[in-house]
């Protein structure tokens, strides 16, 4: 152990892996599988203790394929992005889509995708898709993919899965990443790797209502940003238009609308044809804003599932509705934070701007989604980029360098300390960085978030606790969203800017 010029302790004691992966969703599992296939010894760290702690497990609708027509899928992706998706990135996705799905999900994991009476796959359609090309299992596809994937990875002789383990800091030296410091010791546990792959998922914990797991605190994005990695497109936070409007929101898959369900306002009117030529199957950003407008004008919006055999065709969603006392065929819905289209900037192999650091899945900005994601492309993007990153990451020898030894010398903070700060952060994000943004309100949010991060930094200097680091990470990501939103004054995709000063009358949240 040595002392740095600033007095921070460093150490090279720790363990070693060929490839280190942080995150256990479809992207992390795909990267682990691909690296192991190439002969690497893989260590996969995950905060999760059960599959539904990962965002993949919460994915409902399905996973898109090209169904033999990659150009059609490419067109739909770019159109849904409001013309902002990177065509080269989209080419990477569509050209590798069907092979990845067949190799991993069909042949290796034998996922039991729904079939029709003829025994062929039952492809469905979702919003902004021009064709039925989405493989699904009921409306719980993520669960049926992730759980066998996790079991397969955990049983692989070259992969170790370590649950309930958080990465706190990246180990860096001269622009190169050498691994992470985990929370497996009171002052941090160094893990060195030839390559490190971040697959930490989304940012739903930054908002009061989200379709993400509660621990989706943007950890990978924050760690990468603090280490100097390039971050892009953080203003593009997608809100799903149809989440249950009551307490404990859950997603009502776009597959419901793809099969005929319709949105109605409080007056019983089907309103989406007035907003977009594609009606109820318009892109998500358009539908989300329309739903919010109609809720404000008429009191509520419901998803009318009478055109479906709801109980028979979507039993998992129907059960969630019945558990919440919804007995009829009209389900109250409201927009809800769903997906971050930006993140850590990566290339077509998941390589970041820092040497030996990769990012895949929702924490990565591949360019595929641009300003708005097309339905059922998130699982596909995670699978394709996970496989490509895992393959590319193999072959570099780990190198032990000085790693920060985190301090843990002050008494623990009260149990509710981090939770109360999170409440303040979420209120700020909901009020000022939600479905619509006003430049003045974005500035107010930035001011509140900067103060919050300053407070957290002061506490974290002498304490090593997962909830504090999650709060630190969430604060960093929130500031990145605010900064990107302030720099983009044009409404595009899911970044919608309201410029009428009369609509900006709210006061910033109190500093509690």
Automatic annotation (TrEMBL):
Single GO biological process annotation from the record: NAD+ biosynthetic process
Protein origin, superkingdom: Archaea
Annotated region (Disordered), positions in chain: 54-73
The name this protein goes by in its record: L-aspartate oxidase
Domain FAD-dependent oxidoreductase 2 FAD-binding per the UniProt entry, residue ranges: 18-379
Key words, A-Z: FAD, Flavoprotein, Oxidoreductase, Pyridine nucleotide biosynthesis
Organism from which the protein derives: Natrinema gari JCM 14663
Family, similarity comment: Belongs to the FAD-dependent oxidoreductase 2 family. NadB subfamily.
Entries under InterPro entries matching the protein: FAD-dep_OxRdtase_2_FAD-bd, FAD/NAD-bd_sf, Fum_R/Succ_DH_flav-like_C_sf, NadB, Succ_DH/fumarate_Rdtase_cat_sf
EC number(s) on file: 1.4.3.16
Requisite cofactors: FAD
Keyword Oxidoreductase among UniProt keywords: yes
GO MF, any single term: L-aspartate oxidase activity
A Pfam cross-reference name: FAD_binding_2
Pathway(s) where this gene product acts: Cofactor biosynthesis; NAD(+) biosynthesis; iminoaspartate from L-aspartate (oxidase route): step 1/1
